Amino acid sequence: MPIKFSASRADFRLDVPFERPQFALFQDGSGLISHLFTALEPHGLRLSDLKVERGTGGLAEIHVLCNLFEYALTIRVWIDRVEVICLYVESEEKEKKYSAAIVDALVAIQRKIEPGFRTYAFSMNLHGPLEGESVKDYLAKFVAKTPNIGTPTGAAVGYYYGPTDERLFSSLTLDVSVAVTGGIYIRPQATWDASRVTPQDLPVRVRGFVRAALESLDLETPS
Predict the structure, then answer these.
(1) CB within 8 Å of 8: residues ≥ 6 apart
(2) What angle do CA 217, 222, 223 make, to 5 degrees?
(3) Residue 28 above 80 pLDDT?
(4) Are residues 174 and 140 in contact, defined by beta-carbon separation less than 8 angstroms?
(5) Burial (Cβ within 10 Å: 0-12, 13-18, ≥19) of residue 133
(6) In whole angstroms, how far apart are CA 26 and each of 111, 140, 150?
(7) 28, 103, 124, 202: which has the fewest Cβ within 10 Å?
(8) Which has the closest alpha carbon to 107: 201, 11, 8?
(9) Does the structure show a pLDDT above 90 at 119?
(10) What pLDDT is recorded for position 223?
(11) 149 — phi, psi (to 5°)?
(12) How far is CA 214 from the centre of its chain?
């Protein structure tokens, strides 16, 4: 019987490298900032949430920063990639709002680069309790043998997978959570081929992968 798992804390990261560096992306006339603002204004972006960060001036440090949803979601556009970080996913409703903003940003950026994105690398950190079972006992089910170098207090496991359809590789990590007392930490990661997956398709791929990962662990999440 599946064990009920409800994430008390969740965050995710998405890295989208370009096929090659876009040296003209931040030049006058590129239209990047205008396109980003137009795409993200419906999601609540204000002029004060949009910045050009230059660091020490090196090409690798220059990027456009977009802060959304009271800084819960940040999107950075570098000369060679897009980086998305979401700090708090509190509900399925908010996850869908964040996904819509990310898709609109990626579509706007894609129109400004040539030849396009190379991959989508996604990772998620889930922390939460297991209903009716201790995390130690649950993790022990995945460990065939524990090396005898002392008294074991717990275990962590990691699994790595090769290509599956448009997914190039993936991994799944389980450990004791340090963020939620008595909870479990689950980290699903996956990378998709951007030549075979559009930005609009990405949310479906991500949700399906995370759902399949949890089901493979015999975990049941709230509908």
Answers:
(1) 127, 128, 129, 179, 180, 183
(2) 110
(3) no
(4) no
(5) middle
(6) 14, 51, 56
(7) 28
(8) 201
(9) yes
(10) 62
(11) -120, 15
(12) 16
Residues 25 and 138 sit within 8 Å (Cβ to Cβ): no
Residue 170 tokens, joined: 């993936």
Dihedral angle sign, alpha carbons of residues 93, 96, 100, 106? positive
Q: Which residue is listed with tokens 């876009």?
A: 22
The C-alpha atoms of residue 103 and residue 98 are separated, in whole angstroms, by 9
Length of the chain: 223
Comparing C-alpha atoms, which of 72, 99, 105 is closest to residue 201?
99
Contact between 92 and 10 under an 8 Å Cβ cutoff? The reply is no
Residue 29 clears pLDDT 70, i.e. is over it: no
What is the per-residue pLDDT across 166-177, written as a single tens digit (0 to 9) for each? 999 999 999 999
Exposure letters 196-219 (e unless 16+ CB within 10 A, then b): ebebeebbebbeebbeebbeebeb
